[in-house]
Amino acid sequence: MHELLPWLQGMKHWRGRLLIGALLMALTLLSAVGLLALSGWFITATGVIALLWAGGYQALFDIYVPGGGIRLFALSRTVARYSERVFNHNTVLGLLADLRVKHFSALAQLDGVTLARLRAAQWLNRLTADIDALDTLYLRLLAPPAVALLGIVLVCGLIALFYPLLALVLLLLLLAVLLLVTAGMAAAGRQLSARRVEQLDALRVQCIDQLQGLAELTAAGSLAVHRQALLLKSQQLLDDQLALQGRIVLGQALGLLGVLSASLLGLFAGMLAYQQGLLSGPVVVMIVLALMALNEGFAGLPAAFAQWGATVAAAARLNRQAAMAGRLLNPTVPVPVPHDMSLRWQAVSVAHAGMQQLDLQLAAGERLAITGPSGCGKSTLAALAARLIDPDSGVVSAGGIALPHLALEAWRGQLAYLPQETELLHDSIAANLLLGRPDASDEALWWALEMVDLAGSVDTFPQGLNTWVGETGKQLSGGEGRRLALARVLLRDAPVVILDEPFSGLDHATRDRIKPRLDAWLQGRTVLMLGHAAQALPTADRVLAWGALTARG
To answer: CB within 8 A of 419, min separation 6: which ones?
Structure first.
């Protein structure tokens, strides 16, 4: 249970909406109880009055008040159920979105080494499937049993007005049934549902790995073996799901049996009380039908609590993820960012990149180009400067101050960084540009597009700046996406600029048009440029080949 405490704490911000949703659930159940109980009483009472009239007796019977009550309950049940579904699902979707944003924000603060502990497919699974598993926490595990308990108390309270001893017996019986379909089902399904979470995670990772390595597996002749292993895991998942469904059906049957048993007990006890003159016939029918109506509150509980193990397992994995601490620590008392924007890598070693004892100096206002083949370590140099990673040994400093002594956000606020991979969000062109400078005007956005020779293309789009780029920018060509990312860098207007293969995917003519504009913009800034050749980079004050740099180090 302690695994769920952080998530229960996170619901405090939504407690107002969650309370309204629970009240709508309660109104739905109570309307169903009222509708069935009052209808049974009304029909029976009408029959009794008809018999009295047939026997020659005079009797008065008001049909309007109970008839109006029946219509009220019928209408309130329909409206409450519809409102509850729409309102609660809207609330839970907003809550899950809030949780995803918080967790993604926490992930964004971690360094690459820490993120590498899990594969990308696993991070994705945490942000999607694991957080989705938590929607049961409110919709199925908290509010419904509370509403069912409220229904039991109110129905038994109603019966107590006519027959207190029967109400007490029914209360104990119904509480036992409630305990069976909640705690009992949670215990019965815990292991299977928790294992299902792990199986889904492993299956998703294996599917993605197989798709990504399809060509290599085919060439090696081992695709059939991997496919068979995937099918075996899928079958294990299906077998566990079938076993879990069997337990859910059993739980639902026991819950229904419990409610019907309570109804039969109410019927027989009511008939005995009727014979003794303690209860009237219509009241006996009302008691029985009110008890039967409680099944609406019990029906969904077995399936919900059978997933208890999955909910706890998902919460535990997310808690472990939230507890992950990056290697990039913020200083307790940060040093102010220096005005001198010179950079120095001093005896820097990064084991996973094969970098050993590297020394490099980049003067303030200098433009330095580092050239070398892919995979040699150039991007690691940029990551060190942006403090996305820290070296295993050695020091990276700015203006003579080691970067770990500067606040992370303060230092990164001095940078404009174009990484090797083009990162675009599934949003509009304007939204992607505004990541560089959130307060930029439309004129500034068009200026940045003009600088990268993209304004003309965007102007031809029907929606202009509001054109969506698609997931990872797939609605744009590779060159257009790269130029859009470069335009975002230009909006940063930062004193330190890092460009990792800025002209990747661009033809020579486009590159030649952009290059003089970029040279003018880079004037006076401290610039680190990385590429395969100096000709594929803006004009540099100094060019160093990676091989010569590492040999010198």
So the answer is: 379, 382, 500
